[in-house]
Protein backbone atom coordinates (compact mmCIF):
# COMPACT_ATOMS: atom_id res chain seq x y z
CA UNK A 1 0.00 0.00 0.00
CA UNK A 2 1.36 3.44 -0.92
CA UNK A 3 2.00 5.91 1.88
CA UNK A 4 0.19 9.25 2.05
CA UNK A 5 3.11 11.28 0.69
CA UNK A 6 3.46 9.03 -2.34
CA UNK A 7 -0.26 9.33 -3.03
CA UNK A 8 0.01 13.11 -2.72
CA UNK A 9 2.96 13.28 -5.13
CA UNK A 10 1.39 10.91 -7.65
CA UNK A 11 -1.85 12.88 -7.50
CA UNK A 12 0.01 16.08 -8.38
CA UNK A 13 1.91 14.55 -11.29
CA UNK A 14 -1.20 12.79 -12.59
CA UNK A 15 -3.12 16.06 -12.54
CA UNK A 16 -0.39 17.70 -14.64
CA UNK A 17 -0.36 14.76 -17.07
CA UNK A 18 -4.12 15.10 -17.48
CA UNK A 19 -3.68 18.82 -18.19
CA UNK A 20 -1.14 18.09 -20.94
CA UNK A 21 -2.93 15.13 -22.52
CA UNK A 22 -6.53 16.41 -22.43
CA UNK A 23 -8.16 17.58 -25.64
CA UNK A 24 -7.42 21.21 -26.39
CA UNK A 25 -11.17 22.00 -26.41
CA UNK A 26 -11.58 20.69 -22.85
CA UNK A 27 -12.05 23.88 -20.82
CA UNK A 28 -11.90 21.92 -17.53
CA UNK A 29 -8.54 20.21 -18.08
CA UNK A 30 -6.95 22.04 -15.14
CA UNK A 31 -9.62 20.91 -12.68
CA UNK A 32 -7.53 18.15 -11.09
CA UNK A 33 -4.71 20.59 -10.30
CA UNK A 34 -7.23 22.95 -8.70
CA UNK A 35 -8.63 20.02 -6.72
CA UNK A 36 -5.13 19.02 -5.57
CA UNK A 37 -4.50 22.47 -4.10
CA UNK A 38 -7.89 22.36 -2.36
CA UNK A 39 -7.46 18.82 -1.02
CA UNK A 40 -3.94 19.15 0.36
CA UNK A 41 -3.61 22.83 1.24
CA UNK A 42 -7.13 24.28 1.25
CA UNK A 43 -5.95 27.12 -0.99
CA UNK A 44 -7.00 28.26 -4.48
CA UNK A 45 -4.73 27.16 -7.31
CA UNK A 46 -4.85 26.99 -11.11
CA UNK A 47 -2.84 25.46 -13.93
CA UNK A 48 -2.40 25.96 -17.66
CA UNK A 49 -0.58 24.19 -20.48
CA UNK A 50 1.37 26.35 -22.95
CA UNK A 51 1.86 24.48 -26.22
CA UNK A 52 3.57 27.18 -28.24
CA UNK A 53 5.26 30.54 -27.81
CA UNK A 54 2.41 32.65 -29.19
CA UNK A 55 0.15 31.43 -26.34
CA UNK A 56 2.35 32.71 -23.52
CA UNK A 57 0.76 36.12 -22.88
CA UNK A 58 -2.79 34.83 -23.17
CA UNK A 59 -2.11 31.92 -20.84
CA UNK A 60 -0.59 34.18 -18.20
CA UNK A 61 -3.40 36.74 -18.32
CA UNK A 62 -6.05 33.98 -18.39
CA UNK A 63 -4.75 32.45 -15.18
CA UNK A 64 -3.81 35.69 -13.40
CA UNK A 65 -7.31 37.14 -13.79
CA UNK A 66 -8.52 34.72 -11.10
CA UNK A 67 -6.29 36.28 -8.43
CA UNK A 68 -5.42 32.87 -6.92
CA UNK A 69 -2.42 32.26 -4.67
CA UNK A 70 -0.72 29.44 -6.58
CA UNK A 71 -0.35 28.78 -10.31
CA UNK A 72 1.36 26.06 -12.33
CA UNK A 73 2.42 26.59 -15.93
CA UNK A 74 3.34 23.47 -17.89
CA UNK A 75 5.28 24.47 -21.01
CA UNK A 76 6.19 22.50 -24.07
CA UNK A 77 9.96 22.18 -24.32
CA UNK A 78 10.06 24.61 -27.28
CA UNK A 79 8.48 27.49 -25.31
CA UNK A 80 10.90 30.18 -24.12
CA UNK A 81 11.02 30.22 -20.32
CA UNK A 82 12.54 33.70 -20.39
CA UNK A 83 9.53 34.96 -22.34
CA UNK A 84 7.19 33.32 -19.83
CA UNK A 85 9.09 34.82 -16.89
CA UNK A 86 8.81 38.28 -18.44
CA UNK A 87 5.02 37.95 -18.65
CA UNK A 88 4.76 36.61 -15.09
CA UNK A 89 6.72 39.55 -13.70
CA UNK A 90 4.72 42.03 -15.77
CA UNK A 91 1.31 40.78 -14.61
CA UNK A 92 2.11 39.55 -11.08
CA UNK A 93 -0.20 40.66 -8.27
CA UNK A 94 0.09 40.87 -4.50
CA UNK A 95 -1.92 37.74 -3.67
CA UNK A 96 0.26 35.56 -5.92
CA UNK A 97 2.45 33.40 -3.67
CA UNK A 98 3.98 30.92 -6.09
CA UNK A 99 4.31 30.06 -9.76
CA UNK A 100 5.71 26.66 -10.62
CA UNK A 101 7.06 26.25 -14.16
CA UNK A 102 7.17 22.70 -15.51
CA UNK A 103 8.68 21.64 -18.85
CA UNK A 104 7.04 18.89 -20.89
CA UNK A 105 8.49 17.01 -23.87
CA UNK A 106 5.32 14.90 -24.23
CA UNK A 107 7.10 12.03 -22.47
CA UNK A 108 8.09 13.53 -19.12
CA UNK A 109 7.37 16.44 -16.79
CA UNK A 110 10.28 18.33 -15.26
CA UNK A 111 9.71 21.20 -12.77
CA UNK A 112 12.44 23.72 -13.53
CA UNK A 113 11.57 27.14 -12.03
CA UNK A 114 9.80 28.28 -8.88
CA UNK A 115 8.82 31.92 -8.50
CA UNK A 116 7.67 32.92 -5.02
CA UNK A 117 6.71 36.07 -3.16
CA UNK A 118 7.12 34.49 0.28
CA UNK A 119 7.57 31.02 1.71
CA UNK A 120 4.39 28.95 1.98
CA UNK A 121 3.51 25.33 2.63
CA UNK A 122 3.05 24.88 -1.11
CA UNK A 123 6.44 26.33 -2.05
CA UNK A 124 8.12 24.29 0.69
CA UNK A 125 6.57 21.16 -0.75
CA UNK A 126 7.88 22.02 -4.21
CA UNK A 127 11.38 22.53 -2.85
CA UNK A 128 11.28 19.24 -0.98
CA UNK A 129 10.03 17.24 -3.94
CA UNK A 130 12.08 18.98 -6.62
CA UNK A 131 15.45 19.85 -5.00
CA UNK A 132 17.09 20.89 -8.29
CA UNK A 133 14.50 23.55 -9.05
CA UNK A 134 15.67 27.13 -9.59
CA UNK A 135 14.12 29.74 -7.30
CA UNK A 136 13.24 33.34 -8.19
CA UNK A 137 11.56 36.10 -6.22
CA UNK A 138 8.29 37.62 -7.42
CA UNK A 139 7.79 41.42 -7.30
CA UNK A 140 6.69 43.02 -4.04
CA UNK A 141 3.55 45.16 -3.84
CA UNK A 142 2.44 47.86 -1.45
CA UNK A 143 -1.24 47.71 -2.47
CA UNK A 144 -3.45 44.73 -3.32
CA UNK A 145 -3.83 44.07 -7.04
CA UNK A 146 -6.00 40.96 -7.08
CA UNK A 147 -7.41 40.02 -10.46
CA UNK A 148 -6.21 41.65 -13.63
CA UNK A 149 -8.33 44.51 -14.84
CA UNK A 150 -10.34 43.13 -17.69
CA UNK A 151 -9.67 46.36 -19.53
CA UNK A 152 -6.08 45.18 -19.91
CA UNK A 153 -7.02 41.61 -20.72
CA UNK A 154 -10.64 41.55 -21.85
CA UNK A 155 -10.60 38.20 -23.65
CA UNK A 156 -11.93 35.35 -21.57
CA UNK A 157 -12.42 32.64 -24.12
CA UNK A 158 -11.26 29.55 -22.25
CA UNK A 159 -8.02 27.64 -22.56
CA UNK A 160 -7.79 27.87 -26.33
CA UNK A 161 -8.65 31.52 -26.90
CA UNK A 162 -11.83 30.41 -28.62
CA UNK A 163 -14.46 33.03 -29.26
CA UNK A 164 -17.23 30.47 -28.58
CA UNK A 165 -16.88 31.36 -24.91
CA UNK A 166 -18.37 34.74 -25.65
CA UNK A 167 -22.15 34.52 -25.83
CA UNK A 168 -24.34 37.27 -27.27
CA UNK A 169 -27.92 37.74 -26.10
CA UNK A 170 -30.79 40.12 -26.71
CA UNK A 171 -31.62 40.46 -23.01
CA UNK A 172 -29.60 39.61 -19.91
CA UNK A 173 -29.73 40.62 -16.23
CA UNK A 174 -26.35 40.69 -14.52
CA UNK A 175 -27.49 41.92 -11.11
CA UNK A 176 -27.99 38.38 -9.76
CA UNK A 177 -25.24 35.90 -8.84
CA UNK A 178 -27.10 32.98 -10.48
CA UNK A 179 -28.76 33.41 -13.88
CA UNK A 180 -30.42 30.89 -16.21
CA UNK A 181 -30.35 31.57 -19.96
CA UNK A 182 -31.37 29.70 -23.10
CA UNK A 183 -28.67 29.67 -25.78
CA UNK A 184 -29.41 28.50 -29.30
CA UNK A 185 -26.08 28.54 -31.09
CA UNK A 186 -23.32 27.73 -28.58
CA UNK A 187 -21.97 24.49 -27.15
CA UNK A 188 -20.86 25.22 -23.60
CA UNK A 189 -19.06 22.82 -21.29
CA UNK A 190 -19.74 22.44 -17.58
CA UNK A 191 -17.30 24.57 -15.59
CA UNK A 192 -16.21 26.71 -18.53
CA UNK A 193 -15.85 30.45 -18.12
CA UNK A 194 -17.38 33.05 -20.39
CA UNK A 195 -18.38 36.62 -20.84
CA UNK A 196 -21.87 37.71 -21.85
CA UNK A 197 -22.59 40.52 -24.28
CA UNK A 198 -26.23 41.66 -24.26
CA UNK A 199 -28.10 44.30 -26.20
CA UNK A 200 -30.01 45.22 -23.03
CA UNK A 201 -26.67 46.05 -21.34
CA UNK A 202 -25.33 48.01 -24.34
CA UNK A 203 -22.94 45.09 -24.94
CA UNK A 204 -20.83 46.01 -21.92
CA UNK A 205 -18.92 43.38 -19.97
CA UNK A 206 -19.31 43.67 -16.20
CA UNK A 207 -18.63 40.16 -14.91
CA UNK A 208 -17.04 36.81 -15.60
CA UNK A 209 -19.45 33.84 -15.48
CA UNK A 210 -19.00 30.11 -14.90
CA UNK A 211 -21.26 27.45 -16.41
CA UNK A 212 -22.83 25.60 -13.45
CA UNK A 213 -25.21 23.35 -15.36
CA UNK A 214 -26.22 22.62 -18.94
CA UNK A 215 -29.54 21.10 -19.97
CA UNK A 216 -29.55 20.03 -23.60
CA UNK A 217 -32.84 20.81 -25.34
CA UNK A 218 -33.94 19.98 -28.87
CA UNK A 219 -32.46 23.04 -30.56
CA UNK A 220 -30.82 24.90 -27.68
CA UNK A 221 -29.12 24.68 -24.30
CA UNK A 222 -30.63 25.81 -21.01
CA UNK A 223 -27.61 27.04 -19.08
CA UNK A 224 -27.26 28.07 -15.45
CA UNK A 225 -24.52 30.66 -15.00
CA UNK A 226 -22.82 31.55 -11.74
CA UNK A 227 -21.04 34.87 -11.36
CA UNK A 228 -17.34 34.26 -10.71
CA UNK A 229 -16.46 37.89 -10.06
CA UNK A 230 -17.24 41.40 -11.23
CA UNK A 231 -14.85 43.25 -13.51
CA UNK A 232 -14.17 46.79 -14.54
CA UNK A 233 -16.69 47.75 -17.22
CA UNK A 234 -15.44 46.89 -20.71
CA UNK A 235 -17.18 48.06 -23.87
CA UNK A 236 -17.48 45.95 -26.98
CA UNK A 237 -15.30 48.48 -28.84
CA UNK A 238 -12.51 47.90 -26.32
CA UNK A 239 -12.98 44.17 -26.78
CA UNK A 240 -12.74 44.47 -30.55
CA UNK A 241 -9.65 46.68 -30.32
CA UNK A 242 -7.83 44.27 -28.03
CA UNK A 243 -4.89 42.13 -29.16
CA UNK A 244 -6.62 39.04 -27.81
CA UNK A 245 -8.83 38.69 -30.89
CA UNK A 246 -7.38 37.80 -34.25
CA UNK A 247 -8.84 39.18 -37.49
CA UNK A 248 -11.17 36.25 -38.09
CA UNK A 249 -12.49 36.32 -34.51
CA UNK A 250 -13.20 40.03 -34.74
CA UNK A 251 -15.03 39.46 -38.00
CA UNK A 252 -17.24 36.75 -36.47
CA UNK A 253 -17.99 38.88 -33.41
CA UNK A 254 -18.92 41.90 -35.54
CA UNK A 255 -21.22 39.73 -37.63
CA UNK A 256 -22.98 38.37 -34.56
CA UNK A 257 -23.35 41.83 -33.08
CA UNK A 258 -24.75 43.09 -36.37
CA UNK A 259 -27.37 40.35 -36.43
CA UNK A 260 -28.64 40.99 -32.91
CA UNK A 261 -28.61 44.77 -33.39
CA UNK A 262 -30.99 44.62 -36.35
Your description of this structure?
With 262 residues, the protein is an alpha/beta fold. The protein folds into 2 domains: 4-137, no CATH class; 163-261, Ribosomal Protein L25, Chain P. It is built from 7 helices and 10 strands. It has helices at residues 4-21, 31-41, 56-64, 81-91, 121-129, 236-241, 247-261; strands at residues 45-50, 70-76, 98-104, 109-116, 134-137, 166-169, 178-183, 193-198, 205-216, 221-234. The strands form 2 sheets. Strands 1-2-3-4-5 form a 5-stranded mixed sheet, sandwiched between helices. Strands 6-8-9-10-7 form a 5-stranded mixed sheet. Helix 4 links the parallel strand 2 (70-76) and strand 3 (98-104). Helix 3 (56-64) packs parallel to helix 4 (81-91). The longest helix has 18 residues, at 4-21. The protein is globular, with a radius of gyration of 19 Å. Residues 143-164 have low confidence and may be disordered.
Helical coverage, percent range:
25-40%
Q: What shape does the CA trace take?
A: globular
Strand content: 25-35%
Topology, number of strands: 10
Question: For the largest beta sheet, what order do the strands appear in spatially?
Answer: 1-2-3-4-5
N→C terminal distance: 65 Å
| Structural class by SSE content | alpha/beta
Rounded to the nearest angstrom, the radius of gyration is: 19 Å
Poorly predicted ranges: 143-164
- The structural domain count equals 2
Main sheet: strands, sense, barrel: 5 strands, mixed
Q: Helical region count?
A: 7
Question: Which features does this protein show?
Answer:
30% helix; 10 strands; 2 domains; globular; single chain; Ribosomal Protein L25, Chain P; 7 helices
Amino acid sequence: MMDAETVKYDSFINSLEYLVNAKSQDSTKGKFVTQWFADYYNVPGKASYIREQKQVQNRVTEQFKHGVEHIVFVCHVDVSLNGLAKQIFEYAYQELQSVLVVVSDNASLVPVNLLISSASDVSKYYEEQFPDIKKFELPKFEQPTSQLEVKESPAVYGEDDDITNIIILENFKDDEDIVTVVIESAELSLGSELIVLAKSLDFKVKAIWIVDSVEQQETSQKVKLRKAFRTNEVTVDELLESDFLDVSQKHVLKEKLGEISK
